[in-house]
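Good morning C.,

I know you're traveling, so I'll keep this short. The sequence:
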Amino acid sequence: MAAGSKAVILASGGIDSTTAMAVARSEGFELYSLSFDYGQRHAVELDAARKVSHALGARRHLVIRIDLGAIGGSALTADIAVPRGRSEGDMMSAIPVTYVPARNTIFLSYALAWAEVLEAADIFIGVNAVDYSGYPDCRPEYIRAFETMANLAIKAAVEGKLRIAVRTPLIRMTKAGIIRTGTGLGVDYGLTHSCYDPDSKGRACGDCDSCILRKKGFREAGIPDPTRYAR
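The tokens, ready to paste straight into the viewer:
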């Protein structure tokens, strides 16, 4: 990879996407950060994504607005209660109601379009198949399938001008490993946000699946958790 090559980074404002962005920066990529206002129940994560993108020196932070709330089917986009206080076993027993139908496919498709325009061969996504909530679009086989499709789908690839790589540097890491990696790369996790259902002041609930995994990650990493929790 030549110094200064462009990469599109999917940025949610959370631990994983932020660490993936830091990895891309450490590899010398010019960062193009992509976030989505998709009808999620809170906008705190978009503010976090903006702050993270600025802190990590992204060349541009683009926010795409799409209405997945019109489709619904998720506790993040519809009037469905966010699960709280679940054990790790409960989290892994079934795909949770916080799954947003086809979300990563939609997000990666936008990233693919922007990558083609930018002539960027690399798309970074912070998916993880170890400490996660069982989402099907975080699995390695899904990423491989999307990458195959991507190189069949765009003009630049068909003409041999670009070969898209969907980069998943965190996919085999534990949450603790991700936090240690990001800390070593200078990430300020105080800028990030993970909670599915923060309060009106933007404080994390501390009880949803995402908060539980976040707290577990910091605890196991032996690094202080900078998160503002409501409880």
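Safe travels,
E.
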